[in-house]
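Internal tracking record. Fields below are filled automatically when a chain is submitted to the structure queue. Please do not edit lines marked as system-generated. If the sequence contains nonstandard residues, flag them in the REMARKS field before resubmitting.
Queue: standard
Priority: normal
Entity type: single polypeptide chain
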Amino acid sequence: MARLRHTPEQIIGKLREGEQLLGENLSIEEVCKHLEVSESTWHRWQREYGGIESDDAKRFIEPQKENARLKTMVADQTLDIDKRKELDREPDERDRR
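SYSTEM-GENERATED OUTPUT FOLLOWS
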């Protein structure tokens, strides 16, 4: 089964819907089945997004995306630097022979 990624807005919506269903005396198993998520996912979502609104979630996720982008840039630059150092070393080794 393919893994479905939910946006923060979708997660918050499902948490609200789940809370309403829990208020109607449904069990956590029934709520998770209705929302089509596992219980561990439900609990993780509650821990991460429990008290935030949809707009707050966007501000929470955007820095994480920016950090991932910056880490990729640093990794690329590090590879470039390593390649240049390797190319600079090769002529010196030839001269020594």
